[in-house]
Amino acid sequence: MPFVDLPPSKQSAENLVGGRFVAAEGGALDIKSPYTGQAIGTVGLSTARDVDAAIAAAAAAWPSWSATPIKERTVPLFRFRDLLLRHLDELANLVAAESGKTRDEARAGILRGVEVVEYASSLQNADAGGALEVSRGVSCEYRREPLGVVLGVTPFNFPAMVPLWMFPIALTVGNVFVLKPSEKVPLSACRLGALMNEAGYPPGVFSIVHGARETVEALVDHPDLAAVAFVGSSAAAKSVYVRATSHGKRALCLGGAKNILIVAPDADEELTIKSVVDSFTGCAGQRCMAGSLLVAVDGAGQLIPKIAEAAGRLKLGPEMGALIDRGARERLVRAIDRAQADGAQILADGRAAAAPSGYEGGNWLGPTVIDGARPDMECATAELFGPVLTAIRVGTLDDALAIERQNRYGNATAIFTQTGSVARRVADRSTSGMLGVNIGVPVPRDPFSFGGTKDSKFGQGDITGRSAVDFWSNVKKVTTKWAMQKDANWMS
After folding, report:
1. Residues carrying an active site annotation
2. What is the mean pLDDT of the segment spanning 116-133?
3. Domain 259-437, CATH number (from 3.40.1190.20, 3.90.930.12, 3.30.1360.40, 3.40.309.10)
4. pLDDT tens digits along 463-481
5. Which residues pair with 394 in a beta bridge?
6. Which residue in 190, 389, 411 sits closest to 303, CA to CA?
């Protein structure tokens, strides 16, 4: 069985505007599969007129959609969930074909997105509002109201999951949503759009606009756009956040990471080795939750060669996918070269890994473990975004926590230990937004929300869970009195 089934013919990624797929006016780019390097489709580049058309269709749909009771807004969402599960294998294969993931990784990402769909579906009962008699004859209540036309800009590494983290909640609270997927992986977004149409969402409620940086800027600048959520590199996240907020728009922009895996001397060997390898090689290391910096405390350093050995046994293709493009591979190879030149040891060297038979044109790099790094080296501080683990050896837990605190990113930190007080100390003193205890990829599950700190997030709140409900809406407070009361206080 092939690792992935490529589309039998080239597909065209078109914009979804007013419930119809239409070609963008600004030309097209090839979509290349990371597995083979061959073109599997084209994606349109949207112009300012394309952006205007999509937002106009969304704005026209908003008054009716926002006035629809929330129980009715969830009806097509239930149908959409069923469609996702019915077409799970097909969608997972498409995600894998255009992003380089394995089928299992693509499937797992979609199922994580389905959890957010299910959480959004529960809002009809969970988000009940509130009212209270605060004084005699005076009541206060709050009402949740949507923002209007909102935007989600999503990255290449999770073509289905990250959009599913955004639009189900945004739509359910009454917004209309425009999705701008990465131009490297637009086909999965188009398939989601087709399923949204099939689920019965009214035209204009869910839209897709394809393009590159210029398209994002035109969308963010549009006067009828109320809010934007973004996931990507920290530099791009900060740029979008500054641009959006300068126009008075609400923005939440998630950036990169250099997640730290602290290994204590008493860590369970089998669990730690597997968890570390899974963390830095999963999705070929192309995820913001990858553990890419291992800090071994005292005797825990003896696990580093064993981690390198276990990672080196992974088979490219069936067990680890490809990098998104040739440029990503070249950038990673240069970073490994520099680490070696700076005096670090390469315990597992993915530069020489052979491509799977029949996939020689793909973008392959084997798992790489860099040992003996210093805390100030590039490999220990920069987000390399690939299957590369850098290891630093320190004497104490305080030394490890000092490295964690100096990290410019704040997405995730994990501690591997069998001692509760050690786990508690790391949980209390770490500066990341998400913490794992003996878990290498500590992604919270809904209703717990996903989001980091420091340069991993620009804006307030988180992208999923209860925090996302607040991000995509306003709360209106209504204070009411119908008659004069005999008692007197400051509200009389």
Report:
1. 288
2. 88
3. 3.40.309.10
4. 999 999 999 999 999 999 9
5. 297
6. 389
